[in-house]
Amino acid sequence: MLDRRHFLQTTACGFGSLALAAMAQGAPNPLAARHTHFPAKAKRVIFLFMAGGVSHVDSFDYKPRLIRDNGKMMEFEDQRAIAKTGMGAAQRIMQPLWEFKQQGESGRWASSLFPHMSQKVDEMCFVHSMHTEGVAHGPATLFLHTGTTNFIRPSMGSWISYGLGTENENLPSFVSISPSLSNGGPRNYGTAFLPAVHQGTTLGRAGLPARDATIRNLRNPLLTPEQQGRQFDLLRSINDEQMRRATSLAQGQADAELDAVINSYELAWRLQTNAPDTLDVTSESPATLDLYGINEKVSENFGRQCLMARKLAESGVRYIQVNYTDNSNNPAWDQHSNLPKHADHAAAVDKPIAGLLADLKQRGLLEDTLVWWGGEFGRTPYAERNGTGRDHNPVGFTQWLAGAGVKPGYAHGATDDFGHFAVQDKVHMHDMHATILHLLGLDHEKLTFRYAGRDFRLTDVHGHVVKELLT
Amino acid sequence: MAKLTSHPSAGRTSEAPHKRAATARPHLLLAGAALALTGAATGATPAEQMEFFEKKVRPLLVDKCYNCHSPEHKVKGGLRLDTREGWVTGGDSGPALLPHQPETSLFMSAVGYTNRDLKMPPKQKLSDEEIAVFRDWIAMGAPDPRTGAPEVAAKTASKAMSMEDGRKFWAFVPPVKPALPAVKDSAWPATGADHFVLAGLESAGLDHADDAPLEVLARRLYFDLTGMPPTTAELHEFQQMAGQTQEAALASYGAIVDRLLSSPRFGERWGRHWLDLARFAESSGGGRTLPFKDAWRYRDYVIESLNQDMPLDRFISEQLAGDLLPAATSAERRRQLTATGFLVLGPTNYEEQDKQLLRMDIVDEQMDTMGRAFLGMTLSCARCHDHKFDPIPASDYYALAGIFRSTRTLKNYKDNVAHWIDTPLPMEGEVETRLQAHETRLEKLTADVAAAKKRIKKLSPKVEAKDAKARPVAPDELPGVVVDDSQATVVGTWKTSTRYPTYVGEGYLHDQNEDKGAKTLTFTPKVPQDGRYEVWLSYTALNDRADNVPVTILHADGEETVRVDERAEPTINGRFVSLGQYRFVAGGEGYVLVSNDGTNGIVTADAVVFVPLDEIAKLQTASAPAGADSAAAGNTQLQAAQAQLKDLEKELKQLQASPLARPEAMTVQDDSEPEDCKIHVRGSIRNLGAEVPRGFLTVAQHGPAPKIPDAESGRRQLAEWVANRNNPLTARVLVNRTWMWLHGEGLVRTVDNFGTTGEKPTHPELLDALAVEFMEDGWSLKRLVKRLVTGRTYRMASTGPEASLQADPDNRHWWRQNRRRMDAESIRDSILAMSGQLDPKVGGPNVKADAIDSNSGAAQNLEYNYVFTDVRRSVYTPAFRNKRLELFETFDFADINQPLGRRSSSTVAPQALYFLNHPFMVEQSRLAAQRLIASGAGDDGLVRQAYREILARPPGPRELRLALDFVTVSASEQDAEARRFDNWSLLIQTLFASVDFRYLN
Known about the structure:
The complex is a heterodimer of chains A (471) and B (1001). Chain A has 471 residues and is of the alpha/beta class.
C-alpha cells in the first residue's frame, strides 16, 4: 500500500488542483491556500456537533442551586412559551442526574456523564455563557451552521474554505462526516451563493455506519481495475481526438476551459485509484483504535468518525465536521423526556472525543488544530412539563474549544444560578463564529462575499471576538 | 417585578429587587454627593446634579456604553451616548431616554434587562447599584453637560444613490424604442437585433465568426428550445439545408423553429428556466422539511402556460394575484389559484416558534423572490435600513411589505409547526356536481356520526360507585401494552384511590385538586414492535373533575397535547378515552404525560393502554362492547344507537376512502383585515417605527401608481404595477434573460441585478429595442425566442477570428456565439433518450405526498427515504430541498432555495467520478448498448449511430477506428458475445463522459 502521506504529498489529484485547472488562464485557484488577515493561531477546525442539544446543567455547567431547589416550582422565562405566548410559565426545577466533581489541575467542573472527557478538562476552554437564536432544532441548527435561522446563507465550513483555501489540493477543504438530512440538512454544509468548490464534501450520512463512509462514486463495482483502466484509456483517446477537432475548428486557439475538463478526468482517475486509502482507518495501530473506542460496540461508530477526522486534519483539510446525529426531527441528544438516556449518547461519544484530544495532542496537531464541541443549544434547568426530561434552552448553554490558540483549562462566562440564562460575559453564537474565524486568522468583518449587490458575512452585522478565550 | 424570573436577582424569593434598590439608594447618594432622594431629586442644586453626573454617571457611561455608542469606537443602532444630543435624538428606536421619566425610558428597560429584545450592555447586566445610578440620574432630569451637536460627518457618507439620481439611472428610465443603426455590411443582419450587434462590431472594428456548421446549429437549437438532442431524422432534415438556397434554407430553419416552439418539449425546457426563478421545490427544506403535495400543479401551470404562449404579463400577474383576478370558467379559476403557488413555494421554516417572526420572514422571502425574478432587484437589503447602493429606502420596502403582510400565506399563526394554505379547486360540469354531492354527503355523515356519539353518551348509564357491574379490571384482561399508574413516573403527591371501582389494576391516582401545575404522571410504554397504536387513558369521571386535563403524547413523529374532559364518561367501555393514534418505535422515545397544570377540578389518572391498530380493528369487528362492561347490554335503545353509529362510521370511512376528492392547490389569500406595515427598525419585528402606506418602488414609478383600496391587500395592484408597460424593469429583465438562455450571457450580465451594483448592458439600445418590441408584440415569449434564434447573432459559430478573441475575450461585442455547458437536465434527458428509457409523459404528479400531518415524521421520511427511480424528463424529477437527485447536485443544478436567473458552472472531480462510476451511468449505458445493437447494423454503422445520437455528428475517421478497435472482440475469445456487449456499453458510457458531450458549441 502506498504510504498515505507520501501519496497526498506527491499526487496532484484532487479537488483543489481540479479547481485550479478549471480556472481560465491567469485566474487564481479558488482553493489555493490564501493569506489570512493576520497571523493565524489555528490552521484548521474539527467541529464535534452534538445534535439535539446536550444538557449543560448535567455535564459541564455545575449549578448547586438546582440540587438545593430540586422539585420546587418557579416561574421561568421559558423560551418556547415566550416565542408562542410572550410569557413565561411555572416550571419544576430538576437537579442534575449526574454527579459533578472538580477535575484536573484546573479544577474545572464536570459530571460523571462524560467520564473520559472529564479527564481532559485541562485541555478545554469552556464557554458557559453561550446563547443563540432559534428555539426549535431546525432554526437553531441552521443558526449554528450558517448564522441565520431562516435565510439561505453559506455554512461556516464554506466560509472558512472560501477564506483560507485548502492546505492540501488533493482533498476537499471542507468535509462533513455523517451529516443529517434533517434540520436544514444540506444547508448546514452548503455554499449558498459562495462558489461551488466550497461546498462541504460529505462522507457517509447519518444513519449509515461510519465504516462505509467515503467519497461518493469512487469505484465502479462492475469493473475490474484492468477494465477500468481500459475504459480510461479509451476516454483519454476519445478526448484527445475531440480536442484535436476543437483546436482545428478554433484555428489553433488554445482553450483553457476544455483543458480543465480533460485534466479533471486525469485527476479523478488518480483519485479513484488512491483516495480510498486515505480514508481507511483500519491501517491504524490497535492502540489507536482502542484509544478512540473503536473496539467497543457502543463507541465504535463515533470513534471511527473521530479517527477519520484526525486523519483528515493531518492531511490538511480545513474544516472537518463530525456529526453525532440522526435523520429525525428530534435528534440524538433531544431528551424531552427520559433524561437518563443522555447516558447512552454520552457512552457513544465520550471515549472517542477524549481519544481524539489525546491523539491530536500526542501528534502535536493540537497546536494548530482547533477543536470545537457543542450542540445547537442547551437544555432547561427545569423539567419539561414537569416530566422526566428537559426542553431546549437557547438562552444559556455551554460549548468548549480546545487546542490552537485557546486557553486550556479555562472557563469563561456564566449562566444564572439555575443555568438558565447566560448572564455574565455572554457569548452569542455570532461571537463564537467571530472568535473561531479570528483564531484562523480571519477578520469576521472582512471575510465578505459580494452577492446580489451586497456584501455578506457569516456574522451578518453582529459578532465580537471573545478575546478572553485567546492565549 | 411581581413574577419570579430566573435571573439571579429574581430567583431570590425573600427580597424583591426594587425594594433592595430603594434601600440601597441612600448609601449610594450619600457616598456620591449631598443629594436629596428620589422624588426630591429636582430639589438638588444644579451644581449637585453636575457633581452626581461627573462622579457617578459619566464613568459608567464611559465604561459600559461608549464602546458601542460613541464615534471613537462605533455607533450601534444609530445611538450616541457621548453627548446630550445623542440620547435626546436617540437611535433607530427613537429617543433613548425621557428626563424625569425613568420608568418609561427605553434606556431603563434596556439596562434593567426587562426588554427582551434590547438588553444592554449585551454581555453582562449592570449591577443593581449601577442601574440605580441611571434611574436616579434620569429621575432628576438627566442633567448632562456634554452639549454640542453630534458630528454628522462622523457617519460615513451613504453610497446610496439619491432618488433624483436614481430616476436617471438607466434601469429606472422606461425603455424607448431606438432607431435601427446603420451598418456597412447590410447583407449580414437577419433581424433587428443583428443590426445592433453588427453596428457595435463595426464601430469596434471587430470581425464576427462565420455561421455555425449545420450539425452544430442543430444540436444548439434543439437543446436550447427543447432540452433534448435532435434525432437522426431531425439531424438529417437539418443537413438538407446545406443544398438549399439561402432563402429556402432560412424558410426550412424557420419551419423547424416553429415546430420546436409548438412541441410540448418547449414548455418543459423553458418552464424549467422559470422554475429556477421561482425557486420551485416540492418540499420546504429548512428546519423541518415538509413535502408540498400540490407543488406539481404549479410546475404544470408553468409548463402549460409557456406551451400555450400565455402573454408573460398575464403570466406574472397570475402568479402574484391569480386568486384576485376575475375568472370566466372553473378551469381559469383553477389555473389562477394554482399560479399563486409562486408565493408559497419558498424554503419556509414552518417550525420557527416565533410565528410573528416567521410571518415577516415569509414576507421578506416573497419580496426577495418577486424582486429578483420580475424586477432584477434585490429588495431585501432594505429590510433593515435604506438600501446601501440602490435608491430603495426602507419606506419603499415596507410599502411593499404591507402588501405581502396583508396576504395570508399560512393557515394560522399558532400551530407548533405552521402550515401553508391548501385551497380546494373548483371543477366543472358533472365532475363538480359529483364532487359537491360527495362533499354534502361527507358533511352530513360527519354530523350524523357526531350526533350518534352524543346520543350514545346520553343513553349510556353513568357508572356510579354502587354500580354492581362496575369492577376493577386486571391489566392482562386488556388488549395492547398496559402501563398502569403503579408503573408511572410520579411527580408531586398523588393519592391512590379505589373509591370508584372502574379502575385498572390496584387503584387510580388522584391529584387532590392541589398544587396545580406541580404534579405530573408519565406513562412510558415498552412497545414490542414499531407501528401505530391507539392510545387510551383511563380515569374516573365525576362532576368535580377537571374538564381540561392536559395530556401530552410524545410519539415517534412528534408530540401532541390533548385536553381530556374528566367530567365526561369515558367512551370506551366506560373506562377509557382515546387520545388518538400515534406511531411508536420499539426502544424509541415515547410517553404519555398527564399534568394537572391549569386544571379546573380534580385530575385522576389510572392507566394508559397502547393498543396496536390491528387489534383495534379486531375489537371493532367483534360484536359490540363485550363482557362485564356491557352495562348497557339490556338497553335496546343504546344497542340500536351503537349499531347505527357503527354503520355510520363504516359508511364514513368508505366515503373518505373514495378516490373522489377535490384537488387542492397551494395558494395565498388576501387577509381579512389588510393593513399598512410599520417600518421594522433594523429589521426587528419588535421595534416598530412609522407606518408606511402600501405602495411600490418610488424610483421605478412612472405614471400614476395603481390605488390600493383599504379593503384589499394590494396584490392585484402590485401585479398591475409589475406587469406593466410603464414599469422600466420587468420587460427588460425578461428579454435579457431570454437572451441569456439563448446566448449564454445576458446583455446585462448580472441578470438578477439591474441595480447600481450590477453591470450595465453591453448594448443598451438593443436591450430597449427588444423590450419595447416584446411588449408591443403582446409579451409573447415564443415570438421573442423565434426572433432571437433566427438572428445571425444566434447562428454564429462559437469560435471565430483570433483578432476578435484577443480584443474581446469576454465576447461583450457578441462577435461569436458563446460555447455553453450542458446543464444537468440536458445531460440526464439525453442519456435517457439514448437508452430508450425516457418516459415522455407531460405533466402530472411524480411523487405521492397526500395530506401530510406536519407533526408526523412520515412527512420527512417521504423525502429522506425517497429513491429516485423515475425516467420522466428531469423537470418532473421530485424536487426535494433536502434530498436532491445526485446527478443534479453534481452538475450545478439550480439551488432551489433561492430564485436564480443564472446557474453557476463548476468543473470538479465529482463530475468525472459520476460519469465513470455512478450506477445510473453504468445502467443507462448498458440499456443504450442493447438498443443500439438491436438495430442490427454492422459495427461501423453502430459507431456512426452512437456518435450521431450522443454528439449529433458523425465520427471522424480516427474516431471511428478508435471505437471499432475498442469494441471488436475476437470470436475465439471466451464469452465473446458478452464481452462485445460490455465493450459497447463502455464505449457509450465513455462518449457520454467525453468533452464534446458536455458542451454545446
